């Protein structure tokens, strides 16, 4: 729990934003050093998953017959205890160890099985660098031993992707060779990518009876199965949630996705599904030809997360060891678009607006990541790291010769797939070009935006097919949906001269401390209305500013100091100010929970605090003149 003095300091410096105090951003969401960009994804993972190093891990089992125990316990997933030594350091308490996987267990006739390790098996606080569950994958069905590492690390620039690196494993001091160290998709993963980990997580998993694809297409692909949550319970395995009936969120999203008229789809579905991130998700899985995925199986190998902050769901990639296979080098960018069992492709990619947004994301992935130069560099980096260990692995499934051949095959896959996409007439078009973006406030370009000031955003836009319309998307929250306004080149929107190729639009004014995200969409005049975005990441890589935290001396004098009476209080309090304007009053607990919210409070009115638990509270008064804080104690 944060100390009250720290909360007061944060609130004064940062202001009120998103109904909580200055939040700590997740690891994969960062503000640029100059404060003008908010980017999600593409940042170096926790050191435990550093792809540039290989750590050692030694499991010491008490019983000599530990291997037989592991085999016997596979079906019921029962852990057996072991002492874990990580890079020479012994953990205080024993960990739990079991075999994991299906094809890597049943079809793999070697001793190089995959392992699940529970670090908090005895001590609920035990972890390594914050992680309490380890997945060591044996690389079955992948002689290159790098598909999952290449894929997951590459897509993290665009969507939530599991961290993957390598571990050198020993069992009772015996060398067991190199393993892929793949992050567990759990709350630890969620807190790296989302504002909190307080949502609901499911694994899409077909378990119920009936026909259809045995992997889940038609059942757990966000298909509409009925208007009762029980209709969905067999197909989505809940991992965690604090809600009484979390499947309601799956039902509502599936209903909106499958039963909304096309012309209303974008507006209605965006209430329940993070559409932009979903399009990035589909683009990544299809470009990399992920065989174990939503886009191919329709279930079993993807997750769904409901985000409490936005009240929307997002599909999450999982199990990326079967991607980049030459057999799938000709998957269309519109793979499964005609198959109604896969509504994310069938419905989203058949919508004209979303199809063009999706194609813009395809072009971005190809330009920045999935091209021969970039992908060859990724493959070479991993090859240089693991080549010798692959050759020396005493338990390896495949020969060193097979490894070398498969590395070459990966590069050839990238070359073939890249050429295939460039030959696609919908992908290989010249989109609009957006340049020289500016945020203009009273203090200049990309400078402080004052309290309640409405700044202007301008950018130069050109298109070989001519321009249809330019949109500015903006939000005063760090997450969730955006508002949209048109940008003009008419000389009347602080855009310079009319028809000079510079477009402008204003963002409304917000109170000091507000965090503002924005990005630009340009649409050309072609028959398909090709789109482009700046920043290219659209909704998960955006321009950013914080409304200037300073309140002028004049305004501070106008708002004056808050007086609270009585203090301590038992039943009611009065907050006294010397101004007569309308105030927004909010009462918070010391850990940032909003307890009372009065949008229009007048000085001296009684506030009922009888139902508040005993303790210290923070009061914030805000109005167009500024912000002031004070504390009181509830007895």
- Distinct helical segment count: 13
| Assembly category | single chain
Distance between the termini: 19 Å
Shape: globular
Low-pLDDT segments, ≥5 res:
1-22, 549-560
Mean pLDDT: 90
Largest sheet: 7 strands, antiparallel
* Alpha-carbon Rg, integer: 27 Å
SS class:
alpha+beta
Number of strands: 30
In helices, the fraction of residues equals 10-25%
Q: Which range does the strand content fall in?
A: 25-35%
Describe the structure.
With 635 residues, the protein is of the alpha+beta class. The strands form six sheets. Strands 1, 2, 18, 19, 21, 22 and 23 form a seven-stranded antiparallel sheet that branches. Strand 18 and strand 19 (483-487) form a beta hairpin. Helix 11 packs antiparallel against helix 12 (400-422). The longest helix has 23 residues, at 400-422. Residues 1-22 and 549-560 have low confidence and may be disordered.
What can be said about this structure in brief?
The chain has 635 residues and is an alpha+beta fold.
List keywords for this structure.
635 residues; alpha+beta; 7-stranded antiparallel β-sheet; 13 helices; 22% helix
